[in-house]
Amino acid sequence: MTRNRKRLFLFLFVLGLMLFLAGCATEGPLAAPGVSLTVDPAGEPEQVSTGVQLLVLLTVLSIAPAILSLATSFTRIVIVLSLLRNAIGTPTIPPNQVLIGLALLLTFFVMAPIYNQINEQALQPYSEGEIAQEVAFARASEPLRAFMFAQTREKDLQLFVSMSEMDRPETPADIPTVVLLPAFVISELRAAFIMGFAIYIPFLIIDMVVSSILLAMGMMMLPPPLISLPFKILLFVMVDGWYLIARSLMVSFL
Hints:
Shape: elongated
Strand order of the largest sheet: 1-2
Radius of gyration: 28 Å
Order of helices and strands: HEEHHHHHHHHH
Helix content: over 70%
Strand content: under 5%
Structural class: mainly alpha
Largest sheet: 2 strands, antiparallel
Number of strands: 2
């Protein structure tokens, strides 16, 4: 029965494709009850330009999640929160949905001033027709590039400038975004791992103390993480850990 359904679906698909191609080969529209399909060539250059712009817009929207995770503060925040979860010893608590949601909220908070600059300098003038699309894109990229320059190490920037074999830039404006973005990402990864190392130290000390006590008591068959987990959670709650982590992340971008 399943094979018959697959064959029927394949037959209908091929039939629909043949009808579509037949309609494209004719000058008139392809009509069906309540449905009409026409394929008109773009005779004007403006129509071709509009189609290309629409294609570019769809492409940008498809890579928007990658831009959000790599060109903003999201990378550092989500890595630090993930390392914190592993340091405590609860790989699934908080769940991934909560962790990513918190990282997104903190990212929106950090990037809010930059978004306001983009809105005032590019989006509002472009929506009112005061500037062209190219000018709006250039103005929108300036605040984001300034943010990335502020968080990027000079050493990482020099690496990609030399690898790109470009002329020595005189000003930051001479550095293209395709060179700035990977340098910013590896700088964020370095900063996130440094913060994660500092987070690991107190929890590691608790694990070592608990392991030493269990070894001294001769309880070698009892897993140390099982005993140390409540103490690590208690320590994290007593020092108001979520407040300290959120504050440290926010301050690190100032």
